[in-house]
Design goal:
The structure is a homodimer of 247-residue chains.
Chain A lengths: L1 H7 L4 E5 L14 H7 L5 E5 L9 H13 L4 E4 L6 H7 L3 E3 L4 H10 L3 H9 L4 E4 L1 H4 L28 E3 L16 H9 L6 E3 L5 E5 L2 E5 L4 E4 L6 E3 L12
Parallel strand pairs in A: 1-5, 2-3, 2-4, 4-5, 6-7
Antiparallel strand pairs in A: 1-8, 7-10, 8-9, 10-11
Amino acid sequence: MKNYFKQINHMKNLIIASTSTIHGSGYLEYLLPTLENHFENCNTILFIPYARPGGMTHDEYTSRVQEAFAKINKKVIGLHEFENPTEAIEKAEGIFTGGGNTFLLVTQLYQNNVMEVLSNAIENGTPYLGSSAGSNITGISMQTTNDMPIIYPPSFKTLGAIPFNLNPHYLDADLQSKHMGETRETRIKEFHAFNSTPVLGLREGSWLDVKGDAIILKGALTARLFLQNQNPEELNPETDLNYLGKI
Amino acid sequence: MKNYFKQINHMKNLIIASTSTIHGSGYLEYLLPTLENHFENCNTILFIPYARPGGMTHDEYTSRVQEAFAKINKKVIGLHEFENPTEAIEKAEGIFTGGGNTFLLVTQLYQNNVMEVLSNAIENGTPYLGSSAGSNITGISMQTTNDMPIIYPPSFKTLGAIPFNLNPHYLDADLQSKHMGETRETRIKEFHAFNSTPVLGLREGSWLDVKGDAIILKGALTARLFLQNQNPEELNPETDLNYLGKI
């Protein structure tokens, strides 16, 4: 049944989350009901641990994810455990790319020659979950990441599974702050001084539910949309962002 | 007299500031007394506007800097006004690289083939001022910048005028925050999972005064030093950071 489903249904199927963890809650906890549904046809989820936050090991990171997914009775295997990562991705029932450092994640995806393989798996309908850095890479480029360039990637180009860029963990300017460093909004405006790609600031607790051509904003919060040479706009939950690919 | 000074004195001579502007004060205002002394032998300062914050034009940015330096009777010419940027840097009496986006700054320095020229000018004793992005590039690499990767530079390697990396606008973690994005300290620790270069978190209002081999922390605040596999350490003003090149 599962293979039959995969063969006839090539619709894109992604959950793209701003963060793995919301304040005061466990790892992935707020998303588990959504994920139970998202991965309903999967027994095992392939985990891509490359972004490994704080430099933790791939094994440590995979253990953390195994613990979370055990709550919805899913097995998790780390991509680093396979000799042939291409084959592992091609055969995966479902895929999760965790957060951490986006520069590191993108570097490792290129070094292991799996950026395109991953893109194809997503295009072919393999259910995908991204959080933070793992969400960043679903955009056209990683150029609106918040992360530090701790390693030099061969390219900033990413999966392009959605027709715009993301800024996960989007943070509104603190109007009381005496800090003179750039706000998130200023940084995204700088991006638009040189790039025309739309950018969605996705606040913690928000995610995108991509099913085929529909790209629906989920969660309780609005998201902040930045278009080149336009004032930013707040989008309500349930907005379909598909139109951003047509402007 | 000025040329004579330049010929016999090849001591490095830099002011490396965390920020151009502190809260509630004008552009470069808090630094002007220091700069009057720093640039005492210069009539004209060459300004490198490549990082242009918020995508402002090179001309706009240069005007802002001209206004600030007029208060200490210095002329300012933008590097973009010269046909031959290499010659402009080699002949400069003094150089200021302003803040903005470090990825953009580094990209343009490489594209215009002046990274090495600028490094040589600094080694030869041309007085240099950097603020924010312009300070970032005095380190070994730009890999501890806070900026967004809005453009892909040919390399992350920078001037190496000091034997460590900087994190300008260093910001302490807000312990009250419910935001789950990484703190500055977490990001620097991630850098140290892959790199051994020391990192100095330079708070707004602090600067480094480099004279020959001495690298003295100035301003009223402590700075936070991060060494690989060690706990961060607070350094007092007047500390000489020269020893970081020997560890």
